[in-house]
């Protein structure tokens, strides 16, 4: 782990800016761009007392780590401005969910809800749409262009993590940003991943890992009203929660990311016997498989595509995996914990490796100067660490390494970290 942290110096300047702002910016500067509110880390839910949501198609721009700006589409909650990705909708098992879609774009759009059964559109069963020649034009009923609307409804019969996305010309519309996440909370309680008693987690450590991709030439053509040959589609950006590294480590609703509200930093404390799990919800809207590798955070996979991993008799079929091979449209629910199996302590169980002299090593900007959790060491006089209280940082990233770039800029893209605070947290 320390070897990886020492390599962080090559990202130092960009990461330093993000983390200084994360650490020092007052809460009043972190302006949410929608009606959503929530913690600085973790999942931010858009909720409704009666599970009725209004989504409006909007256009806008997002920033990328190579200082590019990309034109996007998205579903916005109510009358809120454009955001990317679209809102995370959270409902309860058994609720009747209603989605009212208003379309401001110049072409028909729609929403499909993979994993949901008996979806209605304007009160009738949702149906694929065909033109006069019998050609499929949409996987479901549409909201017509330039102001049309459609209302979808269904009963959330199964807990888990699901996606929602456009079912009309999805090759283009999904890649332009018409997608989001739907979370169905189980009847057992909002702090359970599913209805198994062994799936309880700490609601304060529930995290989203949403992977997506962008070919900016497609987005540029759409913005200009030009045609684009999808045979030439070639992503140049891969994002996590709508951001690339180092922006992925910034807090939710960071003021300098006004249209990209969701951070991807996971923050926990060491596991103590009896503590509940932490939960990561993995979702992919990429066009190819993307293996997500959370270092030092192997996940106990308890759900796939909104289905609890158990046998017909209720037997537990959950399994541990150190890499999450996320296919297009798939969702995974992974419980995890972090603990020090060796119990390293400077007095009772010291690390048996001699730490080199500071003049012989390079320090990463997140390193505390000490191998022990909760302690800080000394640095050369010309070095400043961003480590606050001896916390650890462990990288998580897509393991298709050529995809952790931004149009060729290395060490960007779908990268984030697990932050482990000392017991009791930082002062």
What integer is the average pLDDT?
90
In DSSP terms, counting alpha (H) and pi (I) runs of 4 or more, how many helices?
Answer: 4
β-sheet strand percentage? 25-35%
The Cα radius of gyration reads 22 Å
Shape descriptor reads globular
Q: List how many beta strands DSSP finds.
A: 25
What is the N-to-C order of secondary-structure elements (H for helix, E for strand)? HHEEEEEEEEEEHEEHEEEEEEEEEEEEE
Distance between the termini: 24 Å
Which stretches of 5+ consecutive residues score pLDDT under 50?
Answer: 1-35
The major pleated sheet works out as: 7 strands, mixed
Give the fraction of residues assigned to helices.
under 10%
What would you say this structure looks like, in words?
It contains 4 helices and 25 strands. The protein is mainly beta and 427 residues long. It is globular. The two termini are 24 Å apart. The model is unreliable at 1-35 (pLDDT under 50).
Strands, helices and their partners?
Elements: H1 2-6, H2 12-24, E1 52-63, E2 69-77, E3 88-92, E4 96-102, E5 120-121, E6 124-125, E7 129-130, E8 136-138, E9 149-155, E10 160-165, H3 170-173, E11 179-185, E12 201-214, H4 216-224, E13 237-240, E14 266-268, E15 277-284, E16 290-294, E17 299-304, E18 307-308, E19 319-321, E20 324-326, E21 331-336, E22 392-398, E23 405-406, E24 409-410, E25 415-420
Summarize the structure.
The protein is mostly beta strands. Helix content is 7%, strand content 31%.
List keywords for this structure.
427 residues; mainly beta; seven-stranded mixed sheet; 4 helices; 25 strands; 31% strand; globular; disordered N terminus
């Amino acid at each position: 782990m320390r070897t990886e942290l020492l390599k962080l110096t090559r990202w130092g300047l960009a990461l330093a800016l993000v983390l200084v702002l994360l650490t020092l910016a007052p809460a009043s500067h972190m302006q949410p761009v929608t009606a959503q509110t929530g913690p600085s880390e973790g999942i931010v839910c858009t909720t409704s007392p009666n599970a009725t949501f209004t989504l409006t198609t909007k256009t806008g721009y997002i920033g990328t780590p190579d200082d590019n700006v990309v034109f996007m589409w998205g579903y916005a909650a109510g009358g809120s401005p454009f955001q990317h990705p679209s809102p995370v909708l959270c409902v309860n098992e058994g609720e009747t969910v209603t989605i009212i879609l208003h379309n401001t774009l110049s072409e028909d759009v729609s929403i499909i809800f993979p994993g949901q059964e008996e979806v209605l559109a304007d009160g009738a069963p949702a149906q694929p749409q065909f033109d006069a020649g019998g050609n499929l034009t949409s996987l479901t009923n549409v909201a017509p262009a330039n102001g049309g609307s459609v209302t979808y409804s269904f009963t959330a019969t199964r807990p888990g993590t699901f996606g929602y996305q456009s079912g009309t010309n999805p090759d283009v519309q999904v890649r332009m940003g018409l997608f989001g996440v739907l979370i169905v909370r189980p009847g057992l309680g909002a702090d359970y991943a599913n209805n198994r008693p062994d799936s309880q987690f700490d609601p304060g450590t529930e995290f989203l890992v949403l992977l997506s991709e962008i070919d900016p030439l497609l987005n540029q053509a759409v913005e200009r009203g030009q045609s684009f040959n999808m045979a030439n589609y070639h992503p140049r950006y891969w994002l996590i929660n709508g951001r690339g590294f180092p922006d992925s480590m910034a807090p939710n609703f960071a003021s300098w990311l006004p249209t990209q509200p969701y951070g991807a930093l996971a923050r926990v404390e060491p596991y103590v016997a009896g503590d509940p799990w932490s939960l990561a919800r993995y979702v992919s809207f990429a066009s190819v498989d993307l293996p997500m590798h959370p270092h030092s955070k192997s996940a106990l996979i308890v759900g796939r595509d909104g289905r609890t991993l158990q046998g017909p008799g209720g037997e537990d079929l959950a399994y541990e995996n150190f890499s999450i091979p996320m296919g297009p449209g798939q969702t995974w629910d992974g419980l995890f914990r972090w603990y020090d199996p060796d119990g390293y302590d400077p007095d009772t169980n010291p690390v048996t490796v001699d730490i080199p002299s500071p003049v012989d090593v390079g320090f990463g900007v997140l390193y505390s100067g000490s191998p022990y959790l909760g302690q800080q060491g000394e640095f050369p006089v010309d070095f400043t660490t961003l480590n606050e209280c001896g916390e650890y940082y462990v990288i998580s990233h897509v393991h298709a390494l050529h995809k952790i770039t931004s149009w060729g800029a290395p060490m960007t893209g779908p990268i984030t970290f697990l932050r482990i605070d000392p017991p009791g947290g930082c002062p």
